[in-house]
Amino acid sequence: MSPRIEDYALVGDLETAAMIGRDGSVDWLCLPRFDSPPCLAALLGTGEHGFWKVAPTAPGARARRSYEPDTLVLVTEWETPDGTVRVTDFMPPRRRLPCLVRLVEGLSGAVPLRSELRPRFHHGRVQPWVRVADGRTVAVAGPDALWLGTDGPGADTRGEDPMVRDVTVPAGRRLAFVVVWSPSHLTEPPGPLLLPAETALKETRDFWRRWTARCRYRGPWRDAVVRSLIILKALTHAPTGGIVAAPTSSLPGRIGGERNWDHRYCWLRDSTLTLSTLLRGGYREEATAWLDWLVRAVAGDPAGLQTVYGVAGQRLLPETEAPWLPGYEGSRPVRFGNAAVDQFQLDVYGEVLDTLYLSLRAGIPVPAHVRDLVEGLMTHLCRHWREPDQGLWQVRGPARQFVHSKIMVWVAADRALRMGRVLGRDGDRAAWRALRDEVHREVCREGFDPRLRSFTQSYGSPALDAAALLIPRSGFLPAGDARVRGTVDALRGLAHGGFLRRYAPGGPGPHAVDGLRGDEGTVLACTLWYADALAATGRVGEAEEVFARVLGVRNDVGLLSEQWDPDAGRQLGNAPQAFSHIALVETAFTLTAAGRDGARTRRTPAD
Asked: What mean pLDDT do residues 525-552 have?
């Protein structure tokens, strides 16, 4: 039986990440960076597609795990009939080459333990040649090499298979297994193999604790906020500042279904919320790096603006299928790359301009050519805003007049006008104001259904969409507006088991809209948007209940995937999902502020 998605924890080095199961198996690792082909891909197949397991060999061993406080260092303690052993997993922040360390310590008794490494390069497809060089094992195929090194007494014990190490770990003994990737043309063992594991562990702990000490959140959900911010940092590609949506590909929105996407890229739809979260959390340096990445990525012809880019800002992300991988619990096809790069999405223009405006308000320096970028984006938008698009959810069905997309056109015009005042360069101010006013009138006329008392998914459709919960956040209408309140009430129709779908599962919903078969889980970010909207409309108690439900479906180490299946009680979709953790942080700030405002209000009569 496959491990559940929530059975996995994450370690990373700010350029890539590994997914480690409760059973001690690393079942997903892309090297040397997030969007590289995985060399361990058992997550989407079987052990034949690559894994690295370090665990006791005794049957019935029981594990409990946690992150060391304020770090991304994972600690698992195994209790066996022979004694207890601790395995500490971490990836030191990148110096030159990616390195995964698994440090073993005997706590009691003498525990038989095995390290078994089975790399499969090129997306879990190619079995490498294995050789032993200078006492170290190296696996090579094509451009990739994995070096397996050891540190500590007894760690270098080999049998006939150089990729398997069997050791007995008595109390007090510490030993380490280390895997380092390098280009295959390098014939010497890479430097990280020579660094003592204890030194690497101290440096890794210190890095994360210094980083988390900068967190500005002070409230009742600090542990959850800090863990989410650590995950967001871990999904950051440090050399470029890009932040991937998730480190995984093709974990399904429905078990056995086809809603399996590659999320190892950077989405513009997340840009404003990402920047807001980093700034509110106290991470101005990361916010500046994200903004710099965004400005570089969108450079060029405004007509070529994409919804998604690679971690280095690359535009070509061709979507292919991997038929040799059976998929997570048989969910096919497994996809690498993402065809959303070729979609037309109006909302990204609003996201980019909103992010630029938020940066200006926060005092982040923006490049001088941003003024030209704003004018170029607005010129293109003025010509094309009436066209249908694929919408926020990147539907693969026919293009439509999505309400959220039009609202983001309004956001683009509004932020361009505001930036003009700040930058002292107004552009075509009259045309932008006219566009903003026209879009507002049209959306209120065509996108609001008086019978439902709600904004809808697209013009002329009765279908609902959770994206409408973002209306008060965008400034399109205030939270107290009757139409906003009606929309919040109506969107309870998307609820399932206390969580929200992104849109309705039947009738004019997914099959007609997104062109895909089958249903999907509830979306955790949408559920958190609902909590935000409840708080904004004065229903703070209900908002806190919704937030508590989301906190309750984190896994044992605080991670959230993209979706939740209330019926099966399990996580779905790629994990950990930046969109979910960003929304969690934003909601925690919102509810903390609402609680303080309420406390001040309650104290006023006695003052």
From this structure: 98
Q: Enter the tokens of residue 542.
A: 């209900």
Question: Is the torsion defined by CA of 364, 367, 373, 374 positive or negative?
Answer: positive
What's the pLDDT tens digit per position in 203-238?
999 999 999 999 999 999 999 999 999 999 999 999
SS3 302: helix
Residue 396, Cβ density class (10 Å: 0-12 exposed, 13-18 middle, ≥19 buried)? middle
Element containing residue 405 per DSSP (H, E): helix 403-423
Residues 6 or more apart in contact with residue 506 via CB below 8 angstroms? none
DSSP state of 504: -
Query: Amino acid identity, residue 311?
Result: V
Q: Which residues, including other chains, have CB under 8 Å from residue 42's CB and lie 6 or more apart?
A: 25, 27, 28, 48, 49, 50, 51, 124
Average pLDDT over residues 400-417: 97
Percent of the chain whose predicted confidence (pLDDT) is above 70: 95
Lookup: tokens for 289: 């790096």
Q: Which of 171, 63, 66, 178 is nearest to 115 (CA)?
A: 178
Identify residue 393 by its one-letter amino acid code: W
Question: What mean pLDDT comes out for the span 520-532?
Answer: 97
pLDDT at 599: 52
3-state secondary structure of 494: helix
With tokens 């906190």, the residue in question is: 551
| Residue reference for tokens 């195994």 | 78
Half-sphere exposure of 169 (CA within 13 A, CB side): 34
CA distance 88 to 263: 27
Q: Does the pLDDT at position 250 exceed 80?
A: yes
Torsion angle, alpha carbons of 467, 469, 475, 480, to 10: 160
* Exposure of 250 in the CB half-sphere (CA atoms within 13 A): 28
CB atoms within 10 A of CB 537: 20
CA–CA gap between residue 26 and residue 578 (Å, rounded): 21
Residues 297/266, Cβ–Cβ less than 8 Å: yes
Q: How far apart are CA 148 and CA 607, in angstroms?
A: 68
> What is the token pair recorded at 206?
């210190």
- pLDDT for the residue 598: 63
Query: Does the predicted model carry a pTM greater than 0.85?
Result: yes
Residue 385: CB atoms within 10 Å: 21
